[in-house]
Amino acid sequence: MCFMEKKNTVGNNIIKFRLKTGITQEELALRSGLSQGYINQLEHGKRNYTQKSLELIAGALSVPLIEFFKEENEQVSAVAEDVGIYKKKRSYKKELMPILNDLPEYIADHYLTLLKLELELMRKKKEEKPRGKYKN
User: Fold this and answer.
1) Residues 62, 98 share a domain
2) Is residue 78 situated within a structural domain?
3) Which pTM does this prediction carry?
4) Which of 23, 85, 93, 106 could make an SS bond with 27 (beta carbons 3.0 to 4.6 A apart)?
C-alpha cells in the first residue's frame, strides 16, 4: 500500500508568517483569541481550520487571508524557529497585565501556570549546567 503524505499548506504558512512576525504560538493565541493548543494543531495539520479561525489568525499576523493558501516548495519547520526572538529582553508587564485582566479567569490561570512552569524549567536548566573547567 502506498500512502501519500497530506500537504499542510495552511499550517506551514501560519508557521512561516508567525516566525516572520517574531512571535510564539502563545502570543499568536493571545492576539487572535484562540488557544495555543489549537494554533499548534493547526500548524501541524492535526486540526481543521474554520474561516473564522483563519480570519482571526490573519488579523493577528496582519496578513491577507489568501496568503495562508499559497503553496511554496520550501517546507517550514517549527524546529527551525529562531531562538533569538526568545532571548530579547523586553518588559511585557504593561502589555501583559491588561490582557490578563480581560481574559476569563480560567484562561488567565492557564497562562499563569504555563509561565510558572517555564520559569521552573529555566531555573532547572541553569542549575544543571556543568561547571566549566578553568581555561588556560
Assistant:
1) no
2) no
3) 0.51
4) 23
- At 84-134, the pLDDT tens digits run 555 555 566 677 777 777 878 888 888 788 888 888 888 887 787 665 555
Q: What is the CATH number of the domain that holds 52?
A: 1.10.260.40
Residue-averaged pLDDT of the chain: 79
- Does some domain include residue 43? yes
What is the rounded CA–CA span in Å between residue 123 and residue 76?
31
Distance CA 13, CA 78 (A): 11
Cell numbers placing 32: 487572535
Residues recorded for the chain: 136
Helices (H) and strands (E) in the chain, counts: 7, 0
Residue 53: domain span: 1-71
**Alpha-carbon distance values, 53 to 50, 78, 107 (Å):** 5, 20, 18
For residues 92 and 84, what is the distance between their CA atoms, to the nearest angstrom?
17
Residues 2 and 67 occupy one common structural domain? yes
